[in-house]
Design goal:
heterodimer, A: alpha+beta, seven-stranded mixed β-sheet, five-stranded mixed β-sheet, 28% helix, B: alpha+beta, five-stranded antiparallel β-sheet, four-stranded antiparallel β-sheet, 11 helices, 14 strands
Amino acid sequence: MTRPTIKPRTNWLGLPLERVEDEALLRGEGWFMDDLEPLPGIAEAAVVRSTAAHARIRSVDIAAALEVDGVLGVLTGGQVGEMTRPFASVLRAGLEYRAAAVDVARYVGEPVAVVVARDRYVAEDAAELVEVEYDPLPVAASLEAALAEGAPVLHAGAGNNVVSDRHFAYGDAGGALAGADLVVRTTFRHPRSSCTPVEGYGVICHWEGDGVTAWSNFQGPFTLHGVAAAALGIPISKLRLVSPPDSGGSFGVKASVYPYIVLMALASRMCGVPVRWTEDRVEHLLASSMATERLTDVEAGFSATGDLVALRLSLTDDVGAYVRAPEPATLYRMHGGITGPYRVRDVEVRSRVVVTNRCPTGLNRGFGGPQLAFALERTMAVAATRLGLDPAEVLARNMVPAEAMPYRAPAGAVYDSGDYGACLAEALRLARYGDVRDEQAARRARGGARSLGVGLACVVEPSASNMGYITLARTAEERAGGPPMEGNAETVTIAMAPDGSVRVGFTSTPQGQGHRTVAAQIVADVVGVAPDTVSVMPGADTAVRPPTVSAGNYSSRFAVTVAGAVHTAAGRLAQRLRLIAAPVLGCAPEAVELIDGAARGPDGPGAGGVPEVAVPLRRLAGAAHWDPAALPEGVDGLALTITYAVPGLDPPSPDDRVNSSAAYGFLADVAVVEVDTDTGEVTVRDYVSVHDAGRVLHPALAEGQILGGLAHGLGAALTERHVYDGDGNLLTTTFLDYPCPTATELPVPVTAMIESPSPVTPTGAKGLGEGTTMTAPAAVANAVADALGIEDVELPLTPARVWERLGRG
Amino acid sequence: MKPPPFRYECPASLAEALALRAEHGDDARPLAGGQSLVPMLNMRLARPAVLVDLNRLSGLGRISADDGHLEVGAMARQRELERSGAADTIGALRDALPLVGHVATRNRGTVGGSIAHADPAGELPLALLTVGGSVMAESSDRGRREMAAADLFTGFLTTALEPDELLTAVRFGAPGPDEASALVEMAPRHGDFALAAAAASLRLEDGRVVAARVAVGAVTDRPVLVDSAARTLVGHEPTDEAAQAAAAAAADAIEPTGSLHAPASYQRHLVEILVARAVRRAAARAGIDR
């Protein structure tokens, strides 16, 4: 089937073009991890996992497993200990984390051994025959248990389950609290959840000689590439990472596949064959990656008129059994903007990292944002209620005004642009806020079993992480001892073929976001060609295109870093085309316009009497390829590679301030809920989300991100949480027990965009993939609290829990 | 997520299937629609030595009405029954069918399989119990017998079927004049296992209840008839107050086990809410369908 030819024009960015990714996916012709068959004779692995949450491993008996017909080998945790170094971490606190438990298992589901067999059936049969003897140790399967007096210590080398405890002060929060008219003191809990992509982890490893090729759905950040190579004791260049063309989603979760890359590399090395491991759903829920559970103790001072004058936050994150890089980044990702959209200047923050006998945490959509937003936005709503003010007014009066942009927040974030007040006003208008309040009053007067509530949430949504923010986990003195770390960069290769078509490559490892579509739009605009002449390869092959350490698909960095890099690379290519065209057109290079697949000079005869006013790019490209000797000075062909680093990102300052992200969007959400006071059921009747993410690159994709983020946010708000029993067993290992909302449970939100272009990025765009995941739990919780007239609401707001809050339990 | 080894048998006749049943007893598991059994196999929660696939048997998919019953062959797909219209007059069954999983699983899942699986949260077992149904069971040695639904469900995923028996048909009681039933549940999402479910069947004479059944599912190890709740209804008009009294009696009689999503106290509360709703809906139907 042929695609309809797109008519040439110049401003492709901002148009909702059809996604070039879709046709193959809709036809079932996508290539996912489990479809790959890059080599013949790939064996399959099954992972033997710890059934104990905390136990010394006395023995691992593999004899019976090895006797099963079709088994090629069994790798034990002890061997993993001999063959690898511990994974590197920003915290050097005496914690050793490896791809499998060596002497001590610290969470249920931790790999203990790997069985390699001719197929997965045999591998699972043999895995059952691996006999592990555990000497149980006392278990700390919750934050409370890990922090309790006399709690079992997970890592003797760390001496304590609190493996990091940092204090930050900006201004005088104590003084400001003392002078406040109202101080809200509350503790908020954000439970463990996970983003549950349809496709779990997948790895194929092939060890050859002194290195390994790993096909996997790893998504970056490629700092972890180095972490994996170092664990294997090989140079980064000897660990070739290749990603499949398509991904069944990640939402951050697949960053944490890297320990399995190490594990399967060892298995392949041991057995001498390529080894595939495809994670199943139980494994995924049990042992892949979860968002941190966080306790946030808030002390927030307000004036009688609702001004937030002081903020003291104590954040306590449960990162699970190990500090698996990039943790404890959940604590610091939002740090520069820890004050959210509010102007408060006097701030204190305490950030603690706690290890527990639970699955290690890692990237999950929102990454630190939902935890912070829930505490901040609940606090603002509680303050409004206690002060007898309308929460919308309290939010509005505290917001950073548009004229203050760019705004330097106390902890160091530089909010680059945005009209927060306009977003909130638009959200309230779209939600018919006044009418809903009237309806609410009428219902309250009438009584009945369906209570109406309205909740607001406003969030500053960071995009493109500063790789240096994580070093805030170290003190300034500790940081001073090492090399500076900062930035977010992407390497892009772009080339024009002899026929004028363009190829672009970078390492953004998309998982459905439509990077190919948008990159083609950017190139089309800058080089003056139609998007369907631009082919984009956004996947990883580190042997072909070495990535930057910050490459990958996380922190909503595409719209900032990757789009900026593509724009920059396309600009360089365009400049070369102008240099080639100038003599042909008889004008200066800067006078050449690239448009509709041609280079055009100024109207009228050229300066040198050259008659041509336009020359097709394919002619210039053909000449460049076939007559390279004739290229003008400074033009060495039409293929180039650039590395673009987002400006304005520095390492943390000695006084612990950091611009933790490159750009900052904003969103204002309104949730209208009905609560059935007979059953405790919460129904989200209306949801409004208004965003300012700078220039919108592709409105349909932007809308898709908002909807997808909302699905995760509403899941966390209403149904999703991981539950461990006191012995550290995870009770939520299937989708029966971990219920994610499906399309039929989700409201169709009203969305709108306000565009305040970013001065930081070449396109003016900012990321927006995570905002509604941050806002929705807070907005819905505020709405339920409003409906019921209570302060104590805990996530997720399941019917049972709401019913208990109604005092009926 | 791969099953342990098992022997696969695909008999072409009922006699052959029954012979395999007789030969292997509890070591054999019949495979009907597979919507529960196959995930249990893959998670290695079920480990039968022999799998007896019933999908090639003919004659077990008939849906027919006779002398006050709707007889559904064990291998009739849930979706077939739903679309046939045959269940439309049996309120509790009509209510139950759309709640069984999702369309895609109902296309494959069978009525008999769901009954024989005896999941405590299963909607079809609850409906069968409520409308006074029965099942037909067959074995090589003893031939065909009928067993009342009230005697069938003996525990968690357990029935009174003998190891050599196959469930061959399910008989739902059709309502007489002035008789109606209803089934309601509460689930976290559509198609999920219910947090609690309730159903009621009423027969009216001169506006008063002369016979009633109240059943509760998903809160104990099996669906159960709550006679004490039914008794409160008999002799009374099916008013909201009567429904509430029956609900209170049911909540009093049931000892919910509690689940991850619904602690026992909440399940007990839901039993009360849902029994009241089921009785009210059945009463309304008994009036309308008169």
